[in-house]
């Protein structure tokens, strides 16, 4: 495994996560993928060892680490051949609750999440009829006495079957009654055990990766008013705390994937002899690998910049988006080179390349597609005209 100086200073975390990941070798992740089941043992081990409570302040029983450290944990999981998609929700949701929740909510939920009694793994934003146009979501929350009544539908909501809590985005003031379309949206903590079967239905979506994701239907689901996070109508601002964290964390996961692909293909290119020499002696083989390595390294710099700004509570939307864009692109290039230079063997499940190839491909589309990042940068950073 090569080492560079980017992200130096996290050696203790890296060593500890690597040691834990070594207990769950490639065979484990391959089998879990084959069986299309949740890596329960792996997530349990992460929880028992305190990694799932990394972002929870020490006074509530966590480790009080920042997003940079959380991103290193996610990176190492992917670099070890695993898939953080099973557990990253708890990391990116956490600051939404910590920064915008009330002291009562923090006191009630955080120690339980830190001990592993509760999981906060899900965030419900995307809807089938509005897609990326988030402010047009149609799920509504209407206040009736001491309850909010939720109606609507969500799609692609991950880890609902392996979480106790979900942060839900819903419209509390109709779109035609707000000055700005980002107003009138609110976020809620949904107790999933109470909700399922009592106004909320979960329909699993079989998909290309072993990723537990679902369609959700809300039919008069009642949520206590004390589960509103922050101020009613300001939810869009709050959900960005989670979305920016998610982008930076997924950048780190793609970087972990990128290093995994590069290590795998470099080793193979050095060993595989065809035409009497290692395939890695051919520049046609070397160059795509070297290129993707350069791109992973560059993405890594942007990822740490995004995390730094996030942890300092400075605006970081641009850097988080750019880090995710660069890292997803770099890991995809590395995945292609890895598959290509393994020849036929790249397609054999036992090499794990086809699995990681599928897993890393997701990040061109989710949690935000590359086109939407480009349009964000064009409009908000470069000042070009708004196109939609
Ligand atoms: C496995 C998986 C897990 C997910 N988990 C979650 C989750 O836990 N919670 C959650 O809320 N969501 C989740 N999502 C949803 C994910 O965030 C969305 O799929 C993603 O944001 C894209 O939205 P969409 O699918 O509605 O695509 P659309 O918005 O319908 O877009 C479709 C395509 O058109 C392009 N496009 C659309 N508009 C424009 C434009 N104006 N200019 C240029 N191109 C455009 C997009 O780039 C995209 O490629 C998940 C998705 C997947 C696949």
From TrEMBL:
Which UniProt keywords are given for this protein, alphabetically ordered? FAD, Flavoprotein, Oxidoreductase
Q: Name one GO molecular function term.
A: flavin adenine dinucleotide binding
SUPFAM superfamilies assigned: Acyl-CoA dehydrogenase C-terminal domain-like, Acyl-CoA dehydrogenase NM domain-like
Acyl-CoA dehydrogenase/oxidase N-terminal domain location:
12-117
Pfam families cross-referenced by the UniProt entry: Acyl-CoA_dh_1, Acyl-CoA_dh_M, Acyl-CoA_dh_N
- Residue limits of the Acyl-CoA oxidase/dehydrogenase middle domain? 122-220
Q: Does the keyword Flavoprotein apply?
A: yes
**Name of this chain's protein:** Acyl-CoA/acyl-ACP dehydrogenase
Residue ranges of domain Acyl-CoA dehydrogenase/oxidase C-terminal in the record: 233-366
Its needed co-factors are: FAD
What phylogenetic lineage does the species belong to?
Bacteria, Pseudomonadati, Pseudomonadota, Gammaproteobacteria, Cellvibrionales
InterPro entries referenced in this protein's UniProt entry, alphabetically: Acyl-CoA_DH_CS, Acyl-CoA_Oxase/DH_mid-dom, Acyl-CoA_Oxase/DH_mid-dom_sf, AcylCo_DH-like_C, AcylCo_DH/oxidase_C, AcylCoA_DH/ox_N, AcylCoA_DH/ox_N_sf, AcylCoA_DH/oxidase_NM_dom_sf
Per the record, the similarity remark reads: Belongs to the acyl-CoA dehydrogenase family.
Which residues, if any, are the signal sequence?
none
Q: Which organism is it from?
A: Pseudomaricurvus hydrocarbonicus
Tell whether Amino-acid biosynthesis is among the UniProt keywords: no
């Amino acid at each position: 495994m090569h080492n560079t100086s980017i992200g130096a200073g996290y050696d203790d975390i890296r060593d500890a996560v690597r040691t834990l990941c070594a207990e769950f070798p490639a065979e484990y992740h391959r089998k879990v993928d084959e069986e299309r089941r949740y890596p329960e043992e792996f997530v349990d081990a992460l929880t028992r060892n305190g990694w799932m409570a990394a972002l929870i302040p020490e006074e509530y029983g966590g480790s009080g680490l920042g997003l940079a450290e959380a991103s290193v944990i996610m990176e190492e999981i992917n670099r070890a051949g695993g898939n953080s998609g099973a557990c990253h929700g708890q990391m990116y949701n956490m600051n939404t609750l910590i920064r915008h929740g009330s002291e009562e909510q923090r006191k009630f939920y955080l120690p339980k999440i830190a001990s592993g009694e509760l999981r906060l793994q899900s965030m419900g934003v995307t809807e089938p009829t509005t897609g990326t146009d988030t402010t047009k979501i149609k799920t509504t929350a209407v206040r009736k006495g001491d309850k909010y009544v939720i109606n609507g539908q969500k799609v692609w909501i991950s880890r609902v079957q392996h979480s106790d809590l979900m942060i839900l985005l819903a419209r509390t003031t109709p779109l035609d009654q707000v000055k700005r379309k980002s107003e009138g949206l609110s976020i809620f903590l949904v107790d999933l055990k109470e909700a399922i079967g009592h106004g909320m239905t979960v329909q699993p979506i079989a998909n290309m990766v072993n990723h537990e994701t679902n369609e959700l239907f809300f039919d008069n689901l009642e949520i206590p008013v004390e589960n509103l996070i922050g101020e009613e109508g300001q939810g869009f601002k709050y959900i960005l705390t989670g979305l920016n964290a998610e982008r930076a964390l997924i950048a780190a996961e793609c970087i972990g994937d990128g290093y995994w692909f590069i290590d795998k293909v470099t080793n193979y290119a050095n060993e595989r002899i065809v035409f009497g020499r290692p395939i890695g002696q051919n520049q046609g083989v070397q160059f795509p690998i070297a290129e993707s390595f350069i791109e992973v390294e560059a993405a890594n710099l942007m990822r740490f910049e995004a995390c730094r700004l996030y942890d300092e509570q400075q605006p970081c939307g641009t850097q988080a988006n750019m880090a995710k864009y660069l890292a997803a692109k770099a890991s995809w290039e590395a995945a292609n080179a890895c598959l290509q230079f393994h020849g036929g063997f790249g397609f054999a499940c036992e090499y794990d390349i086809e699995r990681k190839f599928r897993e890393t491909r997701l990040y061109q589309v989710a949690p935000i597609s590359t086109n939407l990042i480009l349009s964000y940068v064009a409009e908000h950073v470069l000042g070009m005209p708004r196109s939609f």
